[in-house]
Amino acid sequence: TQLLEQSPQFLSIQEGENLTVYCNSSSVFSSLQWYRQEPGEGPVLLVTVVTGGEVKKLKRLTFQFGDARKDSSLHITAAQPGDTGLYLCAFTSGGYNKLIFGAGTRLAVHP
Amino acid sequence: DAGVIQSPRHEVTEMGQEVTLRCKPISGHNSLFWYRQTMMRGLELLIYFNNNVPIDDSGMPEDRFSAKMPNASFSTLKIQPSEPRDSAVYFCASRLLTGSNQPQHFGDGTRLSIL
Q1: What whole-number distance in Å separates Cα of residue A3 and Cα of residue B43?
Q2: How many CB pairs under 8 A join A and B?
Q3: Is residue B2 within 8 angstroms of chain A, CB to CB?
Q4: Is the dihedral of CA A105, A109, B3, B5 positive or negative?
Q5: In this predicted model, what pLDDT tens digit does every residue of A41-99 receive, in sequence order?
Q6: What is the CA radius of gyration of chain B?
């Protein structure tokens, strides 16, 4: 059973389109992290959200943490081919140290 | 700054052989993690160390898997004997132990193929 459910699993869009991916759980988290993984590389941290209802922006990426701290979303505006990759959400467990990852959303942005 | 360094980047070997994966964490980081990533199961934590001491190895799939961290700048993950179902990308990550939201920094992984 996945503690974190990510949707959609796959997303294929054209350059310039907007998109939203989701990370949902029945559990409450003290924080959630979003990572992006490009082919042939390890995941790289994009953002950490901590406060319920929090919104963080990173250029064209907007991250939101749900009010109840059970879910999070990532919205990309005007997607570019460089946004292609696997987007993973994760929460910390075991005294802050252990990261549990969702299965990820695999995004392909076509020119 | 040098990131997490893993070697080899690719390994192809026959089943039954011993496989050793290596990791050099970021200097100063005192927490180290080994993950395995497959299409079917995603990114799974195998084991992690704090200050070179194994803390949680509940993700290690079988006794064929072992990990060591003899010092703060080096860790190994060993599979003996290897099986085809061990084929995956293995990642090492490190972070500072202090602070609940310190990011984990990942290496580029070792792509392991067991024939």
Answers
A1: 13
A2: 53
A3: no
A4: positive
A5: 999 999 999 889 999 999 999 999 999 989 999 999 999 999 999 999 998 776 657 78
A6: 13
Average pLDDT over residues B49-72: 93
CA-nearest residue to B49 within chain A is A97
Question: Containing H/E element for A110?
Answer: strand A105-110
CB contact under 8 A, A50 and B101: yes
> What is the distance between the alpha carbons of residues A71 and A97, in angstroms, rounded to a whole number?
20
Strands, E, within B2-115: which ranges?
Answer: 5-7, 10-13, 19-24, 31-38, 42-50, 53-56, 65-71, 74-79, 88-95, 105-106, 110-114
Average pLDDT across chain B, whole number? 93
Q: In B, which residues are within 8 Å of A88 by CB distance?
A: 43
CA distance B34 to B69: 11
Q: Taking CB atoms and an 8 Å limit, are B43 and A104 in contact across chains?
A: yes
